[in-house]
Amino acid sequence: MLDKILNRNNGRTNGQENIILLATDGSKPALTATKKAVELAKATGATLHVVCVNEDSMSTPLERMGDDVAEAELVGIHSKGGEVAMEWAALNSVPAVIKTYAGGPVVGAILDYAKQIRPSFIVLGSSGRSGWEKITLGSVAEGVMKHSSYPVVMTKGYNDAYITDILQIALAKLIPEVPEEAPLDMVDIADLNIGRKLGLAVGTLMAFLVPYFGLGFLNSFAADIATAKVFGDANVTVVWVLLLFPIGWITAVMFHRMASKMEGSE
Question: 81 partner at 20 to 30 Å CA-CA among 11, 37, 126, 246?
Fold first, then answer.
């Protein structure tokens, strides 16, 4: 494959800088593409430009579980592809620069950077999955091939024997897995004692409302009693009003203490 590429364009002769653009996510297919890109850059005297995109799309735990199963077979590992490519280029005396996009559409990011640097070739690895974390021939690679104005070199799959050397670098730069959140313990609704707590709440409310409405009843149907004087000029109604809020507050406190004791005994 390398001979065919060199025959097609062995360096630029129009005065423009010779650039090879590598898109990598650190998977095994991407490591294959990294080795090929470095070989191509070294053979043509090109500068290697490495582009990485941090995909920020959300996924459900079920989707991540399915991706992990497929990824184990298709991409092998998930390492820091940009750092691996830079170190591999340095080991092979190939000048290299790296460009990292914080997020956004992956195909758009690759093509945007390609437009900026105008590379001789864009190199990608393929494995049949889509998405940047599986940059490999899925929708990302197909999108680049379809819309790129520059030649695209696609490596297919990976061979462990071929990438043994660069794999050692990648294994030292694995992206740490995000620990899954522990599932919440399910609580039996019976353990909540909702009926008991609701009874306490209603009792507390009634302890305040009964004296309040009792005063209204007294004034409506027993006016003589309501106006009877009990303490000097203070009649029953005045005393009742003065005692209404303290009695309600004391009753509420009592019910609160009862509820606290019941909570402690559960």
Answer: 11
